[in-house]
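fwd from M.: "can u put these together and see what the complex looks like"

so here's what she sent:
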Amino acid sequence: MAARLELEELAGILRKRICPDCACRSGEPTCGLEDQTRCRLFQLFPLVAQAILATDGDDLESYLRAVDENVCSVCMDQALDGTCARRATGCALDGRLREVVDAINAATGRTFRVGPQP
Ligand code: SF4
Ligand code: SF4
């Protein structure tokens, strides 16, 4: 697993790539969640990175499963029945997972790419 400083660097790379055109910003310069306490992607980032780095291959479904099992399972937005209302209304981790995976894989020198949205 990456050291703490490396995780922070990785989160910084993700911020540059994901935040500028995140739907949560609604055209504003910030989304109000950048303090990392409410954006689940960054609040749970150590678990996100761990789940993605523990998964191999170019299949998005495998990453989705890994995030479901290791991140959503401990997220406060997930209900006891496993559903998540925020998934529909906008969770950057869920909505941008393809880019999150590709950015983490690229930044850590892995060759796996899940590729652009079909
Ligand atoms: S919701 Fe998260 S990913 Fe989106 S702009 Fe805010 S901090 Fe960035
Ligand atoms: S999809 Fe829902 S449960 Fe999963 S990280 Fe996002 S807000 Fe949390």
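replying to her w this: Residues 58 and 106 are 12 Å apart (CA to CA).
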